[in-house]
Inverse folding.
């Protein structure tokens, strides 16, 4: 069995946990270690994708274009990817990112809104850039529905479409059946992106791979939104033990996680009380740190805030609603 | 051509989709100095045209031609698409008609009724920016008229069901146009716009968050809040469902330029439900602004006739 292609997104999803404070040096060190260990794709962008630097999501310390350029300069084999959320980033930033050296763009929409991505796939395909679709918050819709949305992205020119468990709310069966539905409906590749809010990052990813996923994501030490992502080093070790054929350096990735990433991490993402609540309530993982901060500021339990955001069926990008909900809960006290 | 006889100016709506239909209901409910002479579409089976006919409104499915043929029509609301308006703008100009553009084509200057309508009263073509722009630019302007605004950011969250194919296929244009409007009309040195579509059922009301960064940490909060409250009252005059959900929130934030005071305003727009459901406040504010602009232009035309 051939192992899936691995995209490490420490330098994108990890940006949430870093509050978007990555430096050129950190990007260089991480990119070098991942490239050396044979990881095929490295995603480098603000956590909320191109042009995510904002009051809404947090300002980047270093311009993402500089970080992309740094990563591209550093690697010898790995491809550099950027994330783009239509509605936040535009073709203007995509063009800029292409000029700074990305070879893959991952275009993410809420899993019901694939039809807002046509312009961006169009631009990517015009310059023959590899383009991957991301159906975010995939736990909110059943497999057949997701397959239809994935077909739209395929028709726009996607080379692969991912089931993205942005809330870390899926269980292994749910992950597997969603991947399977896309595999059956699409001619192109299918991917899976997990969050560890229910402690299932690796478990769900393995279930997705067993169901036929061609591409999967991880981050070193699980650095990422919510309880973090599937830990790249852990995923590679388990896939290796399962007998998948690969060219990754397992111990090299253990070293990268331990000696490159762990020293600069502000905290170890873990399914703590509030993160489990995110997975349980089905809320966008990125809301975690915003809810913790506002909860403290207004003396409201972050868990209450997160559960209410789940009840309101908020989606990726609605960080301003965290303030709204917090103010309402604070008033009720 | 004698419009002053009944103190009404004849207007037409071009485009019989959701926006055109909602605007028709607004003009029927509150005609002011306007008389809706025609709803023109291109699709004979259009539901909008059928609705207009059942209400006794003249309709046509021959696009812009019948409007050009009827020289008594002085003002034309274009609710088609940016692509179509580029062509329409030229034809209407040559025919000497006033165009109020509800598409993102922006052939004429941007207009936000309580901010700069007076300055463009003699234009042949004015543009209404975007729904998010109509909602948020007045409040950014309200701040910038009392203190400098180096940076303003708006986040518009709208119900998926209220985002039509035009918005979906051209989502970048929403972002560019709105950001530019925050700068040109809002008075922010730099503007940024974000749009989120939310598929929740029942659908959410249109929500906008406006963030403003000030120069440094010192801000006369009272002065700013007072100006914002005044502006909200002005907008409510034509969009009754326009309100802040909470008092503006002030916070000191770390930014790339150092510590700055940030203000956040949480705005909700509930539509009046003329035709579109009330959650579609984004579309309601567009048609309400269009009606308001049309009314001011109509009054202007009538005044000119009296003085001539």
């Amino acid at each position: 069995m051939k192992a899936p292609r691995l995209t490490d997104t420490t330098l994108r999803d990890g940006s949430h946990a870093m509050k978007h404070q990555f430096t050129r040096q950190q990007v260089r060190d991480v990119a070098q270690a991942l490239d050396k260990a044979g990881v095929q794709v490295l995603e480098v962008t603000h956590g909320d994708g191109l042009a995510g630097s904002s009051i809404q999501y947090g300002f980047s310390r270093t311009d993402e274009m500089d970080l992309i350029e740094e990563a591209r300069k550093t690697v010898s084999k790995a491809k550099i990817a950027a994330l783009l959320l239509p509605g936040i980033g535009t073709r203007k930033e995509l063009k800029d990112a292409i000029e700074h050296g990305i070879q893959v763009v991952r275009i993410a929409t809420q899993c019901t809104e694939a039809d807002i991505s046509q312009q961006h796939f169009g631009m990517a395909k015009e310059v023959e850039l590899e383009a991957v679709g991301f159906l975010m918050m995939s736990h909110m819709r059943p497999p057949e529905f997701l397959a239809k949305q994935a077909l739209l992205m395929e028709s726009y020119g996607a080379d692969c479409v991912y089931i993205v468990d942005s809330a870390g709310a899926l269980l292994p069966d749910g992950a597997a059946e969603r991947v399977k539905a896309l595999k059956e409906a699409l001619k192109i590749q299918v991917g899976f992106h997990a969050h560890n809010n229910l402690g299932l990052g690796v478990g769900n990813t393995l279930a997705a791979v067993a169901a036929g996923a061609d591409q999967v994501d991880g981050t070193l030490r699980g650095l990422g939104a919510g309880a973090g992502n599937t830990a790249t080093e852990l995923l590679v070790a388990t896939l290796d033990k399962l007998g998948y054929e690969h060219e990754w350096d397992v111990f090299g990735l253990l070293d990268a996680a331990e000696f490159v990433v762990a020293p600069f991490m502000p905290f170890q993402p873990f399914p703590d009380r509030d993160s489990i609540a995110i997975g349980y309530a089905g809320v966008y993982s990125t809301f975690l740190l915003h809810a913790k901060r506002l909860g403290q500021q207004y003396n409201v339990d972050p868990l209450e805030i997160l559960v209410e955001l789940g009840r309101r069926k908020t989606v990726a990008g609605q960080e301003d609603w965290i303030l709204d909900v917090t103010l309402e809960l604070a008033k009720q006290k | 051509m004698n419009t002053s006889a009944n103190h009404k100016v004849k207007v037409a709506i071009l485009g019989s989709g959701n926006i055109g239909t909602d605007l028709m209901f607004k003009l029927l409910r509150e005609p002011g100095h306007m008389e809706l002479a025609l709803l023109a579409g291109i699709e004979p089976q259009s539901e909008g045209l059928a609705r207009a006919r059942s209400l006794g409104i003249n309709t046509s499915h021959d696009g812009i031609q019948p409007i050009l043929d009827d020289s008594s029509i002085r003002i034309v609301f274009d609710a088609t698409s940016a692509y179509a308006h580029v062509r329409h703008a030229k034809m209407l100009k040559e025919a000497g008609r006033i165009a109020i553009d509800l598409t993102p084509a922006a052939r004429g200057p941007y207009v936000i009724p309580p901010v700069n309508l007076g300055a463009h009263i003699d234009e042949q073509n004015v543009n209404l920016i975007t729904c998010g722009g109509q909602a948020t630019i007045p409040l950014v302007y309200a701040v910038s008229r009392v203190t400098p605004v180096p940076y303003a950011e708006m986040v518009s969250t709208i119900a998926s069901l209220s985002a039509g194919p035009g918005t979906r296929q051209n989502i970048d244009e929403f972002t560019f146009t709105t950001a530019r409007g925050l700068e040109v009309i809002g008075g922010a040195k730099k503007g940024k716009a974000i749009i989120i579509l939310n598929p929740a059922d029942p659908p959410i009301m249109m929500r906008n968050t406006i963030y403003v960064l000030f120069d440094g940490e010192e801000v006369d909060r009272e002065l700013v809040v007072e100006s914002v409250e005044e502006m909200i009252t002005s907008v409510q005059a034509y969009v009754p469902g326009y309100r802040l959900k909470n008092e503006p929130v002030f916070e000191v934030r770390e930014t790339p330029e150092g510590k700055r005071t940030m203000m956040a305003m949480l705005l909700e727009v509930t539509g009046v439900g003329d035709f579109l459901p009330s959650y579609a406040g984004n579309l309601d504010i567009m048609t309400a602004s269009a009606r308001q602009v049309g009314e001011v232009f109509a009054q202007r035309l009538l005044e000119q006739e009296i003085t001539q």
